[in-house]
């Protein structure tokens, strides 16, 4: 379902997987009194990170790391240690629960904490965001937006317990627990919460890893939603399309239907009947070629080069779309990810021509040059997202799989062998942030020379820049690793106390 259909959830900050870890915070004083003395300022200092540039040119901020350990009355912020408070409060474990001073943590983030005893409500403010949580209530508020909690805040032994991962990620941080060191680490991956979105990542390219990043988004279809999974069916004989061994279980569990459109360049996927056969040969079943019965024009307002897109008219058969993309290089676009799958992928043959030509032609790729093509992709992607979101219950989410990282697209039946090792699976509610995160990981990868050369020769990052400029999303993101959220750690409750 769309998060706002029932309780106005914001799509950029997902809760499901982060709450699954069961990490909680303790914030209030005693039941009978919560004076200003209880919430007096700690001696921890706020560390402000400075802007830096990522390898691909994206502006980010230096990472902020906060650490607290059991039995130690100190908090460490970016390597600088200071007392938690004047009373030598130490994190402790009681009845299997780890209690830590959330107040010192929030202040280390640059935030403030207050407690209203009458309503038994905690208010946390940081980075332009305000969180309110009440005892016994499974609804929290991020600003004016309701957020569903898996765990209700409760008072145990005079202490108020609330979900710290919800707090951390709402403020642009991630939290992890090291059982061996008895230490909690809370990290800002480089952006402010008020202008960054979450991108979730696992390095395990497995069905379980795919399921994990999907669930981390916290956005799921209703029982009556029609679920489409937009893929590339892959050109024969040896392209790097996503295999059923990886994606089939997730799609089947959601009762999803694969969708795709015919190509505009010939090959074995240009004609409907042959394309259906290739798709089924590659395991994509059930599948609908959304242009098999015709096309439709959708408007694009505010585009850099396009005023319309031409897509398969059976796009209307589905209202919940998972854009599941194999991230790789591309001979024309520089790279292919969520934005290419949204634009070229949803476009009919004439729509593909329109995009490739930068709006000049519906019958040929010839047009106004490389930059116009890249901007047209951003325009078309935006048009598709806006159109799907305008449908009743319309929703789109995005997953990029970074395996078989060839410099060639899945439209190439004989792609070059990859020079980069597999990296992982990433997911976000924002396709711009998702593609930016993938590009940044490419720039950091060993053996990336040929891939980076292809991206830069084609000016591929322009698509991301243009998509941000038109308002499709943001390039600012928080990269949240799910690798440490194993079955063992998921059963370990971490609770923080003032």
Provide tags for this entry.
single chain, 498 residues, alpha+beta, Copper Amine Oxidase, Chain A, domain 1, Rossmann fold, 2 domains, eight-stranded mixed beta sheet, five-stranded antiparallel beta sheet, 14 helices, 27% strand, disordered N terminus
* SSE-based structural type: alpha+beta
How are the strands ordered across the major sheet?
Answer: 21-20-19-24-27-28-18-29
Q: With helices defined by DSSP (H or I, 4 residues minimum), what is the helix count?
A: 14
Q: What would you call the shape?
A: elongated
Number of domains: 2
Q: Please describe the biggest sheet, giving its number of strands, its sense, and whether it closes into a barrel.
A: 8 strands, mixed
Q: Specify Rg, calculated over alpha carbons.
A: 24 Å
**At the first level of CATH, what is the class of the largest domain?**
Alpha Beta
CATH architecture descriptor name of the largest domain? 3-Layer(aba) Sandwich
Stretches where pLDDT falls below 50 for ≥5 residues? 1-62, 189-194, 486-498
Number of strands: 30
Percent in strands? 25-35%
Oligomer: single chain
Distance between the termini: 37 Å
Assign a percent range to the helix content.
25-40%
């Amino acid at each position: 379902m769309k998060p706002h259909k029932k309780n106005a959830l914001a799509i950029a900050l997902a809760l499901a997987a982060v709450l699954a870890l069961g990490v909680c915070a303790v914030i209030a004083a005693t039941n009978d009194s919560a004076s200003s003395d209880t919430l007096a300022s700690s001696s921890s200092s706020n560390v402000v990170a400075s802007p830096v540039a990522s390898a691909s040119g994206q502006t980010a901020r230096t990472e902020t790391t906060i650490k607290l350990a059991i039995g130690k009355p100190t908090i460490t912020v970016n390597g600088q240690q200071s007392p938690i408070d004047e009373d030598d409060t130490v994190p402790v474990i009681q009845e299997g629960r780890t209690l830590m001073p959330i107040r010192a943590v929030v202040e280390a983030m640059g935030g403030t904490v207050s407690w209203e005893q009458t309503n038994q409500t905690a208010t946390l403010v940081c980075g332009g965001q305000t969180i309110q949580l009440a005892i016994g209530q499974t609804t929290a508020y991020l600003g004016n937006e309701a957020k569903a909690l898996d765990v209700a805040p409760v008072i145990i032994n005079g202490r108020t317990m609330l979900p710290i991962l919800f707090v951390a990620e709402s403020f642009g941080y991630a939290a992890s627990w090291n059982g061996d060191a008895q230490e909690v680490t809370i990290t800002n991956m480089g952006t402010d919460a008020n202008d960054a979105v979450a991108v979730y990542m696992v390095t395990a390219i497995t069905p379980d890893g795919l399921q994990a990043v999907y669930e981390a988004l916290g956005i799921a279809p209703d029982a009556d939603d029609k679920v489409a999974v937009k893929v590339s069916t892959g050109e024969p004989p040896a392209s790097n399309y996503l295999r059923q061994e990886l994606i089939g279980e997730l799609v089947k569990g959601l009762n999803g239907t694969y969708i795709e459109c015919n190509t505009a360049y010939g090959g074995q996927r240009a004609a409907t009947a042959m394309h259906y056969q290739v798709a089924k040969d590659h395991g994509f079943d059930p599948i609908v070629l959304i242009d098999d019965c015709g096309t439709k024009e959708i408007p694009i307002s505010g585009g850099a080069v396009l005023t319309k897109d031409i897509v398969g008219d059976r796009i209307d058969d589905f209202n919940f779309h998972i854009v599941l993309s194999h991230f790789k290089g591309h001979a024309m676009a520089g790279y292919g990810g969520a934005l290419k799958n949204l634009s070229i992928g949803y476009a009919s043959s004439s729509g593909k021509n329109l995009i490739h030509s930068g709006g000049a032609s519906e019958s040929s790729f010839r047009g106004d040059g490389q930059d116009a093509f890249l901007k047209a992709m951003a325009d078309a992607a935006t048009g598709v997202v806006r159109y799907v979101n305008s449908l009743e219950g319309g929703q789109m989410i995005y997953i990029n799989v970074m395996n078989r990282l060839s410099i060639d697209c899945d439209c190439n039946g004989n792609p070059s062998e990859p020079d980069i090792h597999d990296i992982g699976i990433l997911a976000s509610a924002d396709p711009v942030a998702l593609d930016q995160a993938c590009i940044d990981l490419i720039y950091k990868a060993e053996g990336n020379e040929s891939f980076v050369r292809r991206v830069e020769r084609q000016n591929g990052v322009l698509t991301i820049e243009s998509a941000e400029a038109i308002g499709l999303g943001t390039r600012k993101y928080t990269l949240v690793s799910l690798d440490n959220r194993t079955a063992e750690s998921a059963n370990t409750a971490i609770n923080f106390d003032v």
